[in-house]
Design goal:
The chain folds into two domains: 2-105, Winged helix-like DNA-binding domain superfamily/Winged helix DNA-binding domain (Arc Repressor Mutant, subunit A); 107-148. The protein has six helices and two strands, in the order ααααββαα. It is flat. The chain has helices spanning 2-8, 20-31, 37-44, 48-60, 82-104, 108-146, and strands at 64-67, 77-80. 69% of the residues lie in helices and 5% in strands. By secondary structure, it is mainly α.
């Protein structure tokens, strides 16, 4: 998807001239408005410092706004600006074009098979997400138990 996204993006580039990591960061905020940076880091499996770097660069680009946390930046939440929402929409459109083009190359029987498997795939992605959430909760609980 990443390679094809570059090929199908506007002018052969990714939306906004951004990297895939930046687009994934913005997409995460689109799905989780007003998320705290620590939560974004956990969802994307990134170091908090990486999220801070992404947030700062996206704020400078006018795509993200930091709300609250004027005294303690850890209490801030991140949200998309209208420009950020537009970039995410463009990224989603690129991904839709990639999938449509790929699906068009498949035989009709394969497309039918994929279509009939969509409910099971939704369940599978939900189960994978739940596992990731459970592991994160276990890690947080263990960290709490080992602290003095």
């Amino acid at each position: 998807m990443r390679r094809a996204g570059r090929a199908y993006g506007p002018g052969g580039a990714l939306p906004g001239g951004l990297s895939v990591a930046q687009l994934e960061f913005l997409s995460c905020l689109a799905e989780n408005p007003a998320a705290r940076p620590g939560r974004v880091a956990r969802m994307l499996r990134l170091a908090p410092s990486s999220v801070a770097t992404l947030a700062n660069s996206m704020a400078r680009a006018g795509l993200v706004v930091r709300l609250g946390g004027t005294i303690d930046r850890r209490t801030a939440v991140l949200d998309l600006t209208a420009a950020g929402q537009k970039v995410v929409g463009e990224w989603q459109a690129v991904n839709a074009r990639v999938l449509a083009a790929a699906l068009a190359t498949l035989p009709a029987a394969t497309r039918r098979s994929l279509n009939s498997s969509l409910p099971a795939l939704r369940e599978l992605t939900g189960a994978v997400d739940a596992l990731a959430d459970d592991v994160q909760q276990d890690v947080q609980q263990m960290a709490g138990e080992t602290r003095p």
